[in-house]
Amino acid sequence: MTSKPTERIAADSDDEPGADAPAEQLTPGRVLDHGRYRLLSQVGSDERCNAELWRAKDGVLGRDVALTILVGDRADAEAATNARRTLERAMHASTFNHVGVARVLDVVTSSAGDPPGVLGLVIAEWTHGTDLLDLVAEGPLPPGTAARLMQPLAAAVEAAHHAGLVLGADHPQRIRVTPEGEVRMAFPGPLAHATSSDDVRGLGAALYLLLTGRWALGDAPEGLPAAPTGPDGNLVAPRTLRPTVPMELSTVAVRALGNPDSTGTTGGVRTGAAVLRVLEQYATYEPTNTLSNGAPPAESNEVWRREDPKPDKTRNKKLAVSVGVLAVATILVIGWIAVGVIGIFTESNQSSGTGTVISGNNPGTSAQQPSPQAAPVRISEGTSFTAQGNPDAPARINNLFDGDPSTYWSTFGYFQQLGPGGINTATGAVLTLERPAVLQQVVINSPSAGSRVEIRQVDGSPSMNSKLLGSATLNAGDTPIKLEAVAPSSKIMVVLTQLAQDGGEYSSKINEITVSGSAA
User: Fold this and answer.
1) Which residue in 203, 291, 311, 382 is a FRET match for 184, CA 20 to 30 A apart?
2) Mean of the pLDDT values across residues 89-110?
3) Phi, psi of 250, rounded to the nearest 5 degrees
4) Model confidence at 247: pLDDT above 70
5) Do 413 and 502 form a contact (C-beta atoms < 8 A)?
6) End-to-end alpha-carbon separation of the chain, Å?
7) d(CA 496, CA 455)
8) Does pTM top 0.85 for this prediction?
9) Phi and psi (nearest 5°) for 214?
10) How far apart are CA 459 and CA 488, in angstroms?
11) What gap in Å lies between CA 510 and CA 482, rounded to an integer?
C-alpha cells in the first residue's frame, strides 16, 4: 500500500510484460497486491480504459472493497501513461468525502505477484445495494423516483467540481444504488483525459437510463438497449418515449448529454448544480392519468391517480347516516371531558380548604422543582474513539454534527459483532460541546436500526469506564436518548457497542447527532 502511486509505478517499471491476456487470469479467488485482496465477483467492465470492476475481500481489514483494476500491456507506453494518470487522479480524489461517492481507500500499482497485465488498482469502500442496470432490468422508474435517486450523485458531481476534481461518473456499471436509495459513484477512477463536462454528461445519461431503460452515452453495455435517435439523427427525448415524464426532467437529461432538446435548443447543461435544481423540483412528482390524447398509461409500473366515480343516492344516504352517528358520538365525548374537568377543579378547591401548606420550610411536605428548560447545545469539535484497533472513518467524524442529515459517519464492515472476543468492543466519537451544560437528551439520526449506543461523560481521557449517562437501541430515523446527568459536561462520548447486521457483515451508520441541556 502507498499514498504515492507515482513512486510505486517507478519501482515496478522493470517488470517484464506478460503474454497472457489479463482477463483470463482475473478470476474469483485470485489474490492481488501481495495477497491482500481476494477477488470475489466481477461486477462489470469499462472497455474505454481497459478496466475491470470487481468486488473483493481485504484480507488485512476483513471487509469487502470495490476494485477498479486497470489492465493492459505494460510494454504499451500509451496504456501505461493512461493508467498512471488514472491512478494519480484517483489518489487526488481520496480526500473527497461525499455521500454520492464511495471513498477511495488506497491506490496501488501492480506488484510482482499480480498477473502480468495488471497495471494498477483503485481500492474503494464497497457499496452495498443494487447495480444500476439491475434497477431498470424490469423497466424504467417513475419520474419522481428517478429524480430522488439521482440527487446524491448530482450533488457529488457539483461538490467535486468545486474542489477541482473529476469523478468519472459517466459509465453505468461504475454506479450503484445503496439500500437507502442513493445513486452512488461506486467505482472511482476517472479516465486519463476525462473532464468535468464528462461528469455532467454522465448525469444526463444516468437520468435518461432511469427514465427510459436505455443508455445514451457511447456504446451501451451488453444487454442494455441503446437510446434511439430520430430521423434527424438527434437523441429521442425521454418524454417522447414516455409521455408521463415531465418536460423539464426530460429536457435536462437531453441537454446535459449535450443534445438539442425538443425545441431544437442546443445550449447544453454544463454544471451538476443545474441538473440538481431540476431533480429537487421533481423529487416528489407523481404522474396522473391526464394525457393530451386521453390515452391510458403505457407502463404498468407507474402509479396513477384516478378520480372516484360520482356517488349514487344510496351511497349519499349511508354517508349522511354515518355523519349523524359521528356527531352524536362527538357530543358524548365532549360531555364526558367536561365532567372530568369540573371534577378536577372541585377536588382542587377542596384540597385548598384544608389549610395544607406546601413549602420548603415544612419538613412534612415537599414540592418537586421543575427541571430547567433544555436548549440545544452546539457541538464544536469531534474526534474518533475506538476501544481497540484502528478508528472507523475518522475523516467523516465532522459529518456527525454538520447539520446535514444527508452526510454520515459509518463504521467499517465487520465479520464479527462488537464485544468481547471480537476485533473491537466499542467505536464512535468524542464530541466537544461549545459550552458546559447539564445534558438532558441526545437525538441520534441513523438508518441502522438495531445498533446499540451508549452516551458517556468525559472528564479526563476517554474510556469505556467513563460515567454512563444513557443508552438506547437505535431505530431507523431519529432516536431520542434521555440522559441522567447531575453535573455539567463539556465533552461526551457517543459509542456503538452493537452494530446493525448488513448481509453477512456488521456495520452501522449515523447521519446526525444533536444535544440539548440546561446551562451549567
Assistant:
1) 382
2) 88
3) -65, -45
4) yes
5) yes
6) 49
7) 9
8) no
9) -130, 150
10) 10
11) 18
At 336 the pLDDT is: 62
C-alpha cell at 186: 461506486
Q: Are 495 and 454 in contact (CB under 8 A)?
A: yes
- 46-51: long-range contacts, CB 8 A cutoff, minimum separation 24: 46/171, 46/173, 46/174, 46/187, 47/219, 48/171, 48/191, 48/218, 49/82, 49/86, 49/189, 49/191, 49/192, 50/79, 51/86, 51/189
- Average pLDDT of the residues of the chain: 79
**19: buried, middle or exposed (CB in 10 Å: 19+, 13-18, 0-12)?**
exposed
**Cα-Cα-Cα-Cα dihedral sign, residues 211, 212, 218, 219:** positive
pLDDT over threshold 60, residue 202: yes
Residue 39: Cβ within 10 Å count? 19
**SS3 at position 107:** strand
Q: What H or E segment, with its residue span, contains residue 57? A: strand 51-58
Contacts of 412 (CB under 8 A, 6+ apart): 61, 63, 392, 393, 507
Phi, psi of 352 (to 5 degrees): -70, -20
Cα distance between residue 374 and residue 488, in whole Å: 13
State the Cα–Cα distance between residues 316 and 58, nearest whole angstrom.
68
User: What DSSP character marks residue 18?
Assistant: P
